[in-house]
Specification:
The complex is a heterodimer of chains A (114) and B (116). Chain A has no helices and 11 strands. Chain A has 114 residues and is mainly β. The N and C termini of chain A lie far apart (37 Å). Chain B has 116 residues and is mainly β. Chain B is built from no helices and 12 strands. The chains are: A mainly beta (114), B mainly beta (116).
Amino acid sequence: DTGVSQNPRHKITKRGQNVTFRCDPISEHNRLYWYRQTLGQGPEFLTYFQNEAQLEKSRLLSDRFSAERPKGSFSTLEIQRTEQGDSAMYLCASSLVQGAAEQYFGPGTRLTVT
Amino acid sequence: AQKVTQAQTEISVVEKEDVTLDCVYETRDTTYYLFWYKQPPSGELVFLIRRNSFDEQNEISGRYSWNFQKSTSSFNFTITASQVVDSAVYFCALSFIQGGSEKLVFGKGTKLTVNP
């Protein structure tokens, strides 16, 4: 049983560039979450998918952010026109559909915007 | 509003000491879940425990134990006979159902350093 995987693990980009991250959840998990974690803080919820449907987006997710889960399997998170404030660790988690089941996290993608 | 407070920012102990990490939560929901996660230096969050709001029994797993008290809205975590490998940031989190999702609200974490 493989865990949640995320690619790339690290991304350095210049301000104004677009970046895309990928998350592959645990295969039988149909719920997928994206969180953002900045230094010294706990993860903050960004968005959530159940299968291919995006059911909720946080107010933290500005118009420059978009997430997809086209076939209910892997998911991508794209940030357009990156800003220095976007520098953070982006975490993906997955879980089963069964009443607040525990979420299993991937290793994260660390984004640095210069 | 849902909120989790971990008042201890950093704790440093010597190996074999017992240590308790505090967690206080706020919610208006009657049904909710509480979690603890460990984030070692490698960065990946590791699930430790889930507890639902109707089950106030304390739980013990090896050197780990959890004390859930609804009367004080607390869900504290104790490590007995700490080891260097316990060094990590520990997060308490609250899950509630809103809009169909069950997102986690995390505290800011407590950084535990266990010195040899």
